[in-house]
Amino acid sequence: MLDKAVKEIGKNVTGVQGDAGKIADLDRLFAIVKNEKGRIDVLFASAGYGELGKPLGSITEKGFDDTFNVNVRGTLFTVQKALPLMKDGGSIILNSSIAGVKGFPGTSVYSASKAAVRSFARTWTAELKGKIRVNVISPGTIDTAMFGDFPQEMKDGYVSIIPMGRMGKPREIAAAALFLASDDSSFVTGIELLVDGGTAQV
After folding, report:
1. Which of 55, 63, 98, 198 has minimal CB crowding within 10 Å?
2. What pTM does this model have?
3. Catalytic pick from 110, 125, 136, 176?
4. Is 49 annotated as catalytic?
């Protein structure tokens, strides 16, 4: 999948495989970035993991640890280790989820981890004020390969709670990230941009 992404992007790209929850992998990643580019202008921390369909009573220690290790610990140390390479005027974008603001049954651990990501953005906005902007994108239900094996009735159930009447497209998340990365959002920091077809608003 990584090789495919590198090929699709085309030029001026380096693929680095790693686990955001492993500090050694993050150290290796940013060593490569420093060696090849010297600095970071935009950081999009978007690694995520979660078990769905886990109501209270069925949550395991492993499930909790795995989710928080990637979503919370991974996000924290990704940003912390990238910071020395970022110059004033840079943009940090964190990937959260509308699960952090809405109560969906069976998602308590995942939702709590995404709420923590939103909290990071608030604190880091205050800590980095005047230097680096920090914002959050919170996608709703996006039509990705994850839903490929889902029964149609389950997909229809997801769509039924989306005011726009359809799943989002990956390019719509990309467009939101591009806005927050660009100078078009030069006076925007600390926000949570919900890209969810209105799901979290009604």
Report:
1. 55
2. 0.93
3. 110
4. no
